[in-house]
Design a protein that fits this description.
Structural class: alpha/beta
Helix content: 40-55%
Number of strands: 5
CATH topology: Adenoviral Proteinase, Chain
Distance between the termini: 43 Å
CATH superfamily: Adenoviral Proteinase, Chain A
Radius of gyration: 18 Å
CATH class: Alpha Beta
C-alpha cells in the first residue's frame, strides 16, 4: 500500500494534467494514531508532543509529501479499528470534512464505519487545530466546532469479494486525483489494475535505486 501511495505522490508531483493540489499520508501514520488513542483519551496533548506525527503533517517524514497547509486535500489509507479492511479517506482542510470511501457497504455499513474511524476523526482534528491550519485555511461557512465532519460516499463502485479492498482504494485515489470519481466504472479489471501497480512498483524501485547510487560519496584515490 505504501509503495502505491508513493507512486501516487510521484504522479501528483509530475503530471501537469492533474489539477487537484493534494498530498498523502501512509500506513504508518494511521497505525500511530490507533496505537496512541488510549493515551489520547487520557491526555489530549500526548499527540501534539509527538514529533513523528507533526513531521507527517509538515511534510518532513514521508518522501514526496507536501505540508498539509499547502494543499487542498490529504489522501489517507485507513484501517478502521473494528474491521481488517482498507478504506480511503480524503481530508478537506478548508471544508473541515473527512470523506470516507468504503468498498464493502453491504457488510460494513455506515454506523460501523463511523465507530471504526472515530479515533482518527478526534485525533486528526486535534492535530490540525494545534498547528493552526483551521485558522489559516478554513472555509468561513464552516462552524467553530474544530472537529471534522464525516461524509460517507454512498455512490462509489463496490467490490464483490473480501480481498480487493486495497486495489479499490488505489483506484479511488486515481480518479479523485483527476477530480473525476464519478466516471469510475462500476466494474473494472482488478487483475489488470494489479499488474499496472506492479509496473509502477518496479519503476519506482529502480528510480529509488538510481537516486541512492547518485548520492553515494565518490572515493578519491
Amino acid at each position: 500500500m505504501d509503495m502505491c501511495f508513493y507512486c501516487i505522490r510521484q504522479l501528483a508531483s509530475n503530471d501537469k494534467n492533474i489539477k487537484v493540489i493534494a498530498t498523502t499520508t501512509d500506513t504508518l501514520f494511521q497505525a500511530k494514531l490507533k496505537n496512541m488513542y488510549h493515551k489520547f483519551k487520557q491526555d489530549l496533548e500526548v499527540i501534539v508532543t509527538d514529533e513523528r506525527l507533526i513531521d507527517d503533517i509538515t511534510g518532513a517524514r514521508i518522501p514526496l509529501t507536501k505540508p498539509w497547509a499547502e494543499v487542498d486535500l490529504v489522501f489517507m489509507p485507513i484501517l478502521p479499528t473494528n474491521k481488517a479492511h482498507w478504506m480511503f479517506a480524503v481530508l478537506d482542510i478548508k471544508k473541515q470534512t473527512l470523506l470516507l470511501l468504503n468498498s464493502v457497504r453491504k457488510t460494513y455499513n455506515g454506523i460501523k464505519v463511523l465507530i471504526g474511524i472515530d479515533p482518527f476523526v478526534k485525533m486528526i482534528s486535534h492535530l490540525i487545530d494545534h498547528i493552526e491550519i483551521w485558522r489559516k485555511d478554513s472555509d468561513p461557512s464552516t462552524d467553530d466546532s474544530k472537529e471534522l465532519k464525516v461524509v460517507l460516499n454512498s455512490s462509489i463502485p463496490q467490490q464483490n469479494n473480501g480481498h480487493n479492498s486495497g486495489i479499490y482504494v488505489i483506484k479511488y485515489v486515481e480518479y479523485m486525483l483527476h477530480d473525476d470519481l464519478g466516471s469510475m466504472p462500476v466494474k473494472f479489471d482488478t487483475a489488470g489494475a494489479r499488474l499496472d501497480l506492479h509496473h509502477c512498483y518496479s519503476s519506482t524501485v529502480k528510480s529509488v535505486q538510481r537516486e541512492r547510487r547518485c548520492c553515494q560519496p565518490v572515493e578519491i584515490v
